[in-house]
Amino acid sequence: METRIFFNPGDSIANIHDYNEAIRKGQIYKKEKKVDDLVIAKGPNDEEYAIFYAKDEKPASQEKAKAYDVKKHL
Q1: Is the per-residue pLDDT at 1 higher than 60?
Q2: Which of 5, 24, 44, 63 is the most exposed place for a label (fewest CB within 10 A)?
Q3: Computed from CA positions of residues 10, 12, 13, 16, in that sequence, does the dihedral angle turn out positive or negative?
């Protein structure tokens, strides 16, 4: 089941068209940077998957926040 959370689009680590490639890049980034939790997410009208730090989640009321559907936690 997908979860909708909010991020500032400018906080994304990467934007990738292919879901499997987004997962692969996220796993590599996580291993190299030794970060805790990454999220692969997609906006309802987006063609790309975005990779975010999970800690960068924003409240819906924040001006620059945009809704994303979480596809996978890494």
Answers
A1: no
A2: 63
A3: negative
Residue 61 buriedness (CB in 10 A; 0-12 / 13-18 / 19+): exposed
Give the strands of the sheet with 49-53, arranged side by side: 3-7, 66-73, 38-42, 49-53, 14-16
Q: Is the pLDDT of residue 70 over 80?
A: yes
Q: What three-state secondary structure class fits 37?
A: coil
Q: Is residue 33 helix, strand or coil?
A: helix
Instruction: Please tell me the distance from the alpha carbon of residue 7 to that of residue 5, in angstroms, as a whole number.
Output: 7
Tell me how crowded residue 40 is: count the other CB atoms within 10 A of its CB.
23
